[in-house]
């Protein structure tokens, strides 16, 4: 009472005006109130020695000061900003900061609970963390937060109005005392060990929950070892530590008669406070000691649903074996797979636990997680290497299908390459297990994934037999859509009907199986039919279904025969069908009760849901018209189309019977219904495709439906969208909101749909009525990656379906990005335009090196030539694009692929005077002996170029390169012209312009090869004739010095001298005359003139 009064007095002393003093006084009053109230309630003894009491007071003070300091630090800036500005952002910041502090207090609620009742060191208080999901902890944290926040409001200037501050300050001590009383009352269970698992023994739970007796709390009458175990089982860490200090043996084992056979480290690992576990480890306890089939690590992972990562980490850090298995073969990772917290599994994997270790049943930890429906941990294990089908074990898929009908886990495993038909023990498949468990949704997922509907296990059971044996009507209905083998039997030759009768299945299931075609008269290995088993068991409803003549529903038949109809024929027929009395319905039709075709059509629509497919099939067999207009509007078919995927089974049955599906807007109505009902599965897409293939209108639209193409894009049905586009649907059609399919695809982020639409001519630049483009919509949705397909800056889309010739057209413009996108859209890389040119040829001719590389990376063929015979290599050579030539040669372009006339790339480069390209061609194996159709070699072509060339060094380099390649220097072509004759202008007009310096340099190079100087072509012209004809005086002099014959005559009998005179080159003509002496002066004197 003294401590309580002191605390109340201390709280009321907080009247000074200094904020810091007020805050400190209010914070330090809380430990005194805690001590006083706990002493008043008898949970704390204040008569202890002074030092432990002061240590207890100090730890409580530090805890409350830490909490108040944390709150003050978190809210100081936003609170001050809010006071000054009153703006929204500081208010939001203040709320966020306060929320973070409350979450932190929630995590530490056991510390405040323990401090309110028992003595504890500050480190021990901080180490006590609780489950953040406990509502009790949230309540305690909220109360502590309210006390601290109210004290902070009193201390902070200007937060509370001046008139209200004094009354609140006076009431604060009472409010704080009430808060401490609440924490003290509800914090009692915080000291209890969190042993919450279905595997914990009943005795352990009772012992943990039972109130402590004086013998267990003080231990005066128990030995130290017994007191240690009693304290541990009741969660009293302080008493257990005291028992150890009193000499209890840390290595002692439970007594043989104890129901709870968990050892000391096993129990210590389950406590919220790990001080005792650390003390046991310090005393050398063997953490791998197996007792009762368990180790401490196995117990820590097994006996906690929410996981105990701190305890597991402590055990692993001190040598606990993560691979140890219990008596059932479960490792710690198997137990952790049932935990909601993946942190434990992460610790075990980091410590070396085998992710695919198998338990006694053959399941890995992934299988255990799937069996528990713990998909979060299953995903974690898969991401860390767990195999859906561990070697030598059972597939995890079998465990995933055996629980609740939740396909999420099955879909997770299938996405990670789990085989739908993986076999387990006794050759069981997941589809068999799901059918036996009655999980119709999972059966549908497995069937859609390609699971074998007719697979047999070791006992001959198929999925259909399993579903029939266990009486699962919905599973049989789902399997019926896959058309299973209805004649299948098990190892005892029992078919589905026999197994259903043995299992006591409902008459509905028997009817369902009989509609599927299961033979009711088939006998098993003992010669007994389904009828025999039903009669033996006294199941007369089954008998009436299997043999209508055995128990004929005479009351209905007699009533119809006498004509006593209290209800209309349609109502009577409906009742018979609703009760699945098909024999009565047949009797009604047989007796002619007057059911009109319109009434049959109405009933057909009424029984079109998945639960009444037997009646639906019965009505179809008995002539119910599906195309008859109901009340002058739509027929049954269009009413079913308006139901979307919900009517999928009925629509399939109509299609299988050849029902016509024509009519305006039929496909759009079905797609709109699928959109409204979110029927987006692939099965519904397949039905839509079937409707379209059978003639459903893909062009007409009835309000308020979207055009089929836009609806298909919204649903994500790319196959249907492609089929619609191939059929000629306008890719730029707009819906009621003025949006095209491109706008819808951009808004939904459907990249595949965008590619498909652009491939078939959709315009990405089209605008909505609000002026938005598809690119703007995609950017607004945060899908900037879609701009790759929506923004065409260089080459623009043609506004029609893309054609192969568009690829060379884009290459002409040099837009490498457009070319790459067109290739991604499916255009053939070797497509040609109207001139037969490929994109590679266009890119090579244009010198677009990057584009050439893109095309070559896409395996473009460099050997395809245009109609003119040009190839990519020849185009690059002609345009002198050396880098392009290099890339083509690296890609394996043929260096000897000839152009029309037999001109090879080497001849072409020589004719153009390109020694660098000629050298690359020679290195790549160009044929130096090749001749064109005129007999010209590469050296002839180089000589032709040299006559008109002006760059002396390049010409010499070209001739050096060719001559070093051993080209014959004096070979004549078909016209008898040698390289020397062509060098001197044998093919040029007389007097053509040329650079005589270049000719002289090349002439010297040829003279070094010992070429003939007197060779004459078919016209009889020799090198001297050529030089004289073109006025090459220095060449004439050089030839004459080399001994060229000056008197050779051509075909017209002319000498070089005659040609020089004929062309007016007198100085050159004089070079051919013999030398004369000086004329005599006497000759001129004798001349009379």
From TrEMBL:
Annotated transmembrane regions: 24-41, 53-75, 87-109, 138-158
Superkingdom per UniProt: Bacteria
Repeat positions for ANK: 328-360, 361-393, 426-458, 459-491, 737-769, 835-867, 868-896, 901-933, 1019-1051
UniProt cross-references to InterPro entries, sorted A to Z: Ankyrin_rpt, Ankyrin_rpt-contain_sf
Keyword Endoplasmic reticulum among UniProt keywords: no
Keyword annotations of the record: ANK repeat, Membrane, Repeat, Transmembrane, Transmembrane helix
Record bears the keyword Cell membrane: no
Coiled-coil boundaries: none
SMART domains tied to this protein: ANK
Protein name: Uncharacterized protein
Lineage, opening ranks: Bacteria, Pseudomonadati, Pseudomonadota, Gammaproteobacteria, Lysobacterales
